[in-house]
Every structure is written in C-alpha cells, then in structure tokens.
C-alpha cells in the first residue's frame, strides 16, 4: 500500500503549491439520521428529562468523515446503504447538499434506514442510541470499485464490513492509503479489517476489544504486526493520539489542541476524514495526525465541522483558538 508520503518535504510538510486541489477520498460505511437532543444532564434511568434543543441531520462515522473531507477542500465520495424510504432519500439529498458525491449510495427496496438518538449534555459529552436499520444488503459486489483509480485514499468504518474488506483489498492492489476507523465493534470484525488497512486508528474502546488486557502501546504493536500496516493509533480525548509505525522505537504522541468542548459528537469522525484527506494530499503521518487533531478539536468545540482555513490557522498557531472572523468563515 502507498505510504502517503509522496511529495513531502524533509520536515513532513507538503511543500507550498504541491498539495493537489480537491484530492479524492472514498468513504465507506455508515450513514444514519441523527436526532440530537441537548440536555443539562444525562440522568441514569428511570428518568424524564426536558431537552433544551433539538436538531435532525446526517450522522454515521463514514458519512461525517465524508462531509469533513468536502468542507476541508477535498472531493468526497460516499458509499453506504440505506432503505429506499423517506429517511434514505433525505440522507442522500443532505449528503449531496454538503458537496459529497452520493451516487454510489445503495438504496435498498424493503429495507429500513438507520437512525440514532444523540443526547448531549451541557459539558459536551454525549450518549448515543443507534438503530442500524433492517434488511440492509451485505453484498458489496455492486460497488463501483473501478472509481478507486481516481482516488487519493480510502476510509472505511466497520459498520459494513463486507464492503470495507472489498474496498481495502482493492485499495491495496492500487497502492492507495487506506484508513480504518476502528470504532467500538465486534471483535471478529476488527480482526477481519485491521490487517487489511494501511492505517488503523482506534477509539479507546475499539483498541480494548481488539487487544484486551494489554497496555495501549502493546495493543498498537499487535495491530501493526497483524498485517502490513503503516501506522496504528488510538485517539484518547484530551490526552491526544498515541501512535506507532514500523521502525519506531516505542510510541509517539500527537498532543491534543486545547479547546473547551461543547459537543463531542462526530469529533472522531471528523478526525478520521481529515486524516484520510491529508494522506490523499501527500502529507506524512505526523503532519496528517496534527491536521486531523486540529479538525477534530474544532468540531468538539462547537459541534460544527470546520473549514480548511480554520484548521490551518489552528495548526499554524500551535493550538491557539482561531479568531472569531475565521470561525465565522468556517
């Protein structure tokens, strides 16, 4: 698989003028209708809580990542599956309105589109209940894998494992950087997909499921040695990102960017989308992790996916919060 380091300068930063405009990232996996409720506190049951706010929109790991790619200046392609129902049609239109190419979205007759209830408290922490739909097809044979010829990278989540496996194998044949959003999932699915990815980025729960009972550094090493991976990492909130690559003496850490989080929903998904885009643009791993960390932090700050200018301003400022003027542009 490609290392994603082509055209990178000595310090791991793409030289000025060398970043391809609109690098293509193919995102594969989950899309759901998110019903989001803002509350003061998430109370344990039995309880009855009044919401201070409500919204409905696009959710799902790969779908959030695709939207992030589009807002950060890339060309996002999304492959997922929904029912041929009102909710599925609404999601297709919403993705298109975000600038995401959803022409590969599978709309299955007789299936029901997934949805989630997202409850966010005043500290920005969230609890999610997801209904993964019904009768969604598992067979990925209809995916237009030939379109990977024009892509710069791929990103898959574990919610459609058959498609993720097919895309990862096709990406490896083409030498494309391939990123796995190794979120909480069944152990068998993570063990199926991690060896096929070039870059496996775990949530803490995902790494614990993949490598139970060991320290994170050891868990990442087990991921690296499960297949020809180029990098394995685990996101850890305010502690930043712990990562390992072949040939490294121990693990490295990308510090988090200090923000006051108000809504952490989708922050990890934005991180993965930004990382995949950075690889598609030719950024080295360390630069890509920093770019992705800034994007994820900005998403957690106000619950909105940032634009390119905001992320680059944060990266250049060493963690300083972008100005109000730049924030409004995003």
TrEMBL record:
<dbReference type="Pfam" id="PF00294">
    <property type="entry name" value="PfkB"/>
</dbReference>
<protein>
    <submittedName>
        <fullName>PfkB family carbohydrate kinase</fullName>
    </submittedName>
</protein>
<feature type="domain" description="Carbohydrate kinase PfkB">
    <location>
        <begin position="25"/>
        <end position="300"/>
    </location>
</feature>
<dbReference type="GO" id="GO:0016301">
    <property type="term" value="F:kinase activity"/>
</dbReference>
<dbReference type="InterPro" id="IPR011611">
    <property type="entry name" value="PfkB_dom"/>
</dbReference>
<dbReference type="InterPro" id="IPR002173">
    <property type="entry name" value="Carboh/pur_kinase_PfkB_CS"/>
</dbReference>
<keyword id="KW-0808">Transferase</keyword>
<keyword id="KW-0418">Kinase</keyword>
<dbReference type="InterPro" id="IPR029056">
    <property type="entry name" value="Ribokinase-like"/>
</dbReference>
């Amino acid at each position: 698989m490609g290392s994603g380091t082509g055209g990178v300068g000595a310090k791991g930063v793409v030289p000025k003028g060398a970043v391809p405009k609109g690098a293509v990232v193919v995102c594969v996996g989950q899309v759901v209708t998110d019903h989001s409720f803002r509350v003061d506190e998430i109370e344990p049951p039995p309880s009855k809580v009044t919401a201070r706010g409500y919204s409905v929109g696009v959710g799902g790991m790969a779908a959030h990542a695709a939207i992030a790619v589009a807002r950060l200046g890339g060309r996002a392609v999304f492959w997922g599956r929904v029912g041929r129902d009102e909710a599925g049609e609404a999601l297709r239109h919403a993705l298109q309105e975000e600038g995401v190419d959803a022409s590969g979205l599978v709309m299955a007759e007789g299936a029901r589109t997934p949805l989630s209830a997202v409850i966010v408290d005043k500290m920005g922490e969230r609890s999610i209940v997801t209904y993964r739909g019904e009768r969604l097809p598992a067979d990925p044979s209809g995916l237009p894998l030939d379109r990977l010829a024009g892509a710069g990278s791929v990103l898959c989540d574990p919610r459609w494992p058959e498609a993720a496996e097919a895309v990862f194998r096709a990406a490896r044949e083409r030498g494309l950087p391939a990123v796995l959003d190794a979120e909480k999932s069944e152990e068998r699915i993570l063990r199926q997909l991690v060896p096929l990815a070039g870059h496996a980025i775990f949530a803490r729960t995902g790494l614990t499921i993949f490598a139970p009972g060991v320290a994170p550094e050891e868990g990442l090493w087990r991921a690296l040695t499960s297949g020809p991976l180029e990098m394995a990492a685990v996101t850890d909130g305010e502690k930043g990102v712990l990562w390992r690559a072949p040939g490294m003496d121990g693990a490295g850490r990308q510090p988090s960017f200090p923000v006051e989080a108000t809504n952490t929903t989708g922050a990890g998904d934005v991180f993965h989308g930004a990382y995949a885009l950075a690889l598609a643009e030719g950024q080295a791993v360390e630069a890509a992790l920093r770019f992705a960390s800034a994007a994820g932090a900005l998403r957690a700050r106000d619950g909105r996916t940032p634009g390119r200018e905001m992320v680059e301003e944060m990266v250049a400022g060493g963690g300083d919060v972008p100005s109000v003027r730049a924030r409004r542009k995003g």
